[in-house]
């Protein structure tokens, strides 16, 4: 019995290549939208800093305008802001160096040696970040006044170290745990001491972790405001306090505030760009070791 084949229905399924292209387009579109959401506030601050004071908060906003550096010139004429800016650069940089000198060896010891109650020690280190800053600010104020550390650079550097030490120890311990101990054993076989193996083998392999915690520690210390408000007055004033001064009781100087905010972003960007080169080198070094 002969049967006639009916008309074939077209295949409505998309090919694998088409699906991959759609997924790629959707992913890039989502990243583009997210980039806009993240970068738009930065654009708004920078554009506001380049507008005349009268046009800084005009509604509707002026999207096309003639840029001016008036706000930055006014900012540079304020010696208090310039002093606070370089004050913060010195104190934050010193605190990052010291917290790495303390935290990295401590993390290495916790990773490589069997210490009694090691878990308790790690929890004790982490406990320094468990309480909110507002809960410990009064005890720190009393201690600083008793030790003559109030409104001193040494006191603020110590404060920044206290803020970041737990981060450095925990992150670097996890990083050292991921580095094979056979590297150190090979160096010891070649005649290196334990310290030489740590300095010449382990530290280069740990570059990604070191520079990562350095960046985070720098940012955490740079943007800190509460401890600066309570523990400083004149000599150790920070740049975040000076930015806060532009918010008055009856008036906010939006142009100056935007210029000061933009100026405080610049050191962080420069530091991240400078460290990124070494971070990439450390990452490639780690990949070679892992293979």
Automatic annotation (TrEMBL):
> InterPro entries this protein is in?
BP-dep_ABC_trans_perm (IPR050901), MetI-like (IPR000515), MetI-like_sf (IPR035906)
Could you tell me the keywords of this UniProt record? Cell membrane, Membrane, Plasmid, Sugar transport, Transmembrane, Transmembrane helix, Transport
Q: Where is the ABC transmembrane type-1 domain?
A: 85-275
Compartment(s) of residence: Cell membrane
| Top-level taxon | Archaea
Query: Any transmembrane segments, and where?
Result: 29-46, 81-109, 121-144, 156-176, 209-232, 252-275
GO CC: one term? plasma membrane
Q: Which PROSITE patterns match?
A: ABC_TM1
Membrane-topology annotation of the record: Multi-pass membrane protein
Enumerate the Gene Ontology biological process terms.
transmembrane transport
The text of the family note is:
Belongs to the binding-protein-dependent transport system permease family. MalFG subfamily.
Q: What is this protein called?
A: Carbohydrate ABC transporter membrane protein 2, CUT1 family
